[in-house]
């Protein structure tokens, strides 16, 4: 029976058991697709990243990302987790490193433990939508006035950094904290728009140096609420640039706090003045062990 190292790495935080956990298998060469899928199901993080030797000799690693239900092209927080682990234990020094993904080659910058990434040549997009505040408020469990109160300056819109999200500005943190989301209504809304989830935010943040406080709901993909989310934060950064949310130029770097209502707080650093938008953060290993992988097709159960 094959045995591999397996870790859980918490992204967008320096404190274990906070931020957004990613599964990580650092030595994944030789694993069949079915084995990777089974390991991802067993670790049961929202995404698990598998590190393989790169096909291109100039790239540092090839990354393959799996949710518990299947493979995806790219994951923001799992990429940050991989970059952080490689910087701490895998021998990568500070600088820019190329990673191969199913979404193409991406550059990851590492500096003093801080990892930044962007989805390659992907250009962000922002489109205002006319949904009506009553409908959106009903889906996320808000008073419509808390949305319309800021709607003149901050409209409802879809925004993308690879995956696409519905961006919903809310007036104050009290309103954001009191949301009572309806997963079925949110799933219907996101399916209709063809987006991954709904990102509600307010500039009324907890920390003095935070730009905003966000919450992400994505029940259509099995995530009722997500801890700090990289691609969603990047999409919101593009949104803030497009709607000219700040007097003058967008800040060079913004800090988005998220995950507090799940007891998994974290911070995502966003740079969105120009494309490609980039997101960054730190990560910490919370768990390390071994996982046993039977021959695929056998009746054995994977054991941690």
Automatic annotation (TrEMBL):
Pfam family, one: PhzC-PhzF
CC annotations in GO: cytoplasm
UniProt KW keywords: Isomerase
SUPFAM superfamilies on file: Diaminopimelate epimerase-like (SSF54506)
The UniProt record lists the keyword Isomerase: yes
Superkingdom of source: Archaea
Gene Ontology terms for molecular function: isomerase activity
Protein name in the entry: PhzF family protein
Organism: Natronomonas moolapensis (strain DSM 18674 / CECT 7526 / JCM 14361 / 8.8.11)
């Amino acid at each position: 029976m094959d045995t591999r190292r397996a870790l859980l790495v918490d992204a967008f935080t320096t404190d274990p058991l906070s931020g957004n956990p990613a599964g990580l298998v650092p030595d994944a060469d030789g694993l069949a697709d079915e084995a990777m899928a089974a390991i991802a199901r067993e670790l049961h993080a929202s995404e698990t990243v598998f590190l393989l030797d790169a096909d291109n000799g100039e790239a540092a690693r090839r990354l393959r990302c799996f949710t518990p239900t299947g493979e995806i092209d790219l994951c923001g927080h799992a990429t940050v987790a991989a970059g952080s682990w490689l910087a701490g234990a895998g021998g990568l020094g500070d600088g820019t490193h190329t990673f191969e993904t199913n979404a193409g080659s991406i550059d990851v910058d590492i500096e003093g433990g801080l990892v930044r990434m962007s989805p390659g040549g992907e250009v962000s997009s922002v489109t205002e939508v006319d949904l009506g505040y009553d409908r959106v408020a009903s889906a996320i469990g808000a008073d419509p006035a808390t949305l319309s109160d800021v709607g003149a300056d901050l409209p409802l819109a879809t925004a993308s950094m690879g995956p696409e999200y519905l961006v919903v500005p809310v007036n104050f943190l009290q309103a954001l904290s009191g949301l009572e989301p309806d997963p079925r209504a949110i799933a219907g809304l996101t399916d209709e728009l063809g987006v991954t989830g709904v990102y509600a935010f307010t500039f009324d943040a907890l920390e003095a140096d935070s730009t905003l406080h966000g919450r992400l709901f994505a029940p259509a993909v099995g995530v009722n609420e997500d801890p700090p989310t990289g691609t969603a934060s990047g999409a919101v950064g593009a949104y803030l640039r497009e709607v000219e949310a700040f007097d003058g130029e967008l800040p060079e770097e913004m800090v988005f706090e998220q995950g507090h209502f799940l007891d998994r707080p974290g911070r995502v650093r966003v740079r969105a003045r120009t494309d490609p938008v980039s997101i960054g953060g730190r990560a910490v290993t919370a768990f390390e062990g071994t996982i046993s992988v039977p021959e695929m097709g056998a009746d054995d159960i994977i054991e941690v």
